[in-house]
Design goal:
2 helices, mainly beta, 46% strand, four-stranded antiparallel β-sheet
Length: 335
């Protein structure tokens, strides 16, 4: 019958006084009663000479399978048509001695998985419309309207990029795919959370020696100097339904649905309408997000009740990207 590999039955290991590592593993092989050691040692599934130690969750790429192998007959039960053998093999990283067979890892000088990660970077320049000047003052016309689409407000905008290249035994494609176009969940490389985004990823499978595979992964991160969470003015064509009226003591914003000096619910879209300015023309306004009123407006209720004054214009924070823990990729924390 054809010999069959049945898996590991024993293993052991340690280091000698010179620091060399040695492991011994035994596997079970099923064979016919007429099969001998030569056929047993040729059984498919047994470790190949030169392959590195990799059994279950136990991996050590620094040692390789030596030519040594011993097949030992165990026996058979009753009149079964098959019998059992154990095969003992040795893995070690001892220096090569004269006459020892060359292993499949001898074509390289070092383990590529132990190579330090390569880190590089650059800066990429773009342009964008500025919303605020160098002093943080909103850029607008004298009428209060924002300046949009003019070459005068185009500013240079430079992002840093970081490229990291690493060699790994397992590609981990599903883990990386889940982190693409996400930002750092916590501080990284001196940057606060949400300042670093994984934008590009490439990989290549390579062979080490003649029998061991590994992967080279390349990550490219973009760094936004202002963070990827963006803040914009709370400027809208809508406001709480109302109009500007002259009540003798000046212009007041008369809120249609206010009752007894209480504003309607800001969270209810039905309480909003197109905003008209003090000339009763359709326009846009900076809005106090807490009241839904034009920023700084003094208001009264349409029922004649006395109201109050809206707060300053608020802003809206836009969080475009989900967060991820990039340290799970094994990238360096400092460089």
């Amino acid at each position: 019958m054809t010999t069959r590999f049945h898996g590991r039955i024993d293993w052991s290991g340690g280091r000698d006084d010179d620091g060399y590592t040695e492991y011994v593993v035994k596997h079970m092989v099923e064979a016919g009663v007429a099969d001998g050691p030569a056929q047993i040692l040729a059984t498919a599934g047994l470790p190949r000479i030169g392959s590195f130690w990799n059994f279950g969750n136990d991996t050590d790429a620094r040692v390789w399978c030596w030519p040594y192998a011993r097949a030992e007959y165990i026996g058979r039960k009753d009149n079964e048509p098959h019998c059992w053998w154990s095969v003992e093999q040795k893995f070690s990283n001892k220096q090569e001695t004269s006459g020892r067979l060359k292993t499949c890892l001898d074509d390289t000088f070092e383990n590529p998985l132990l190579e330090p990660q390569k880190v590089s970077g650059s800066f990429v320049e773009n342009q964008r419309d500025a919303r605020y000047d160098k002093d943080g003052i909103r850029i607008q016309y004298s009428t209060g309207e924002p300046i949009l689409g003019s070459d005068a407000i185009k500013t240079d905008y430079t992002r840093a990029t970081v490229k990291i290249e690493q060699n790994v035994a397992v590609l981990g494609l599903s883990t990386v795919a889940a982190m693409m176009n996400r930002v750092n969940a916590s501080a990284l490389w001196g940057m606060a959370a949400c300042y670093v985004k994984l934008s590009r990823f490439s990989w290549e499978r390579k062979i080490w020696g003649t029998c061991a595979w590994y992967y080279t992964r390349s990550f490219e991160f973009d760094i936004d100097p202002d963070g990827f969470d963006k803040t914009v003015d709370n400027e809208s064509q809508l406001a709480l339904a109302g109009k500007w009226v002259d009540q003798g003591a000046g212009l007041f914003y008369e809120v249609k649905e206010a009752a007894s000096g209480v504003l309607p619910a800001v969270s209810d879209p039905k309480n909003y309408s197109r905003y008209t300015d003090k000339s009763h023309e359709l326009s846009r306004a900076l809005i106090d997000g807490l009241t839904g009123l034009p920023a700084g407006a003094t208001w009264n209720g349409a029922d004649g009740s006395v109201g109050g004054t809206a707060g300053p214009a608020t802003t809206v924070t836009i969080q475009k990207y989900k967060e991820a823990n990039f340290l799970l990729l094994g990238i360096p924390t400092i460089f």
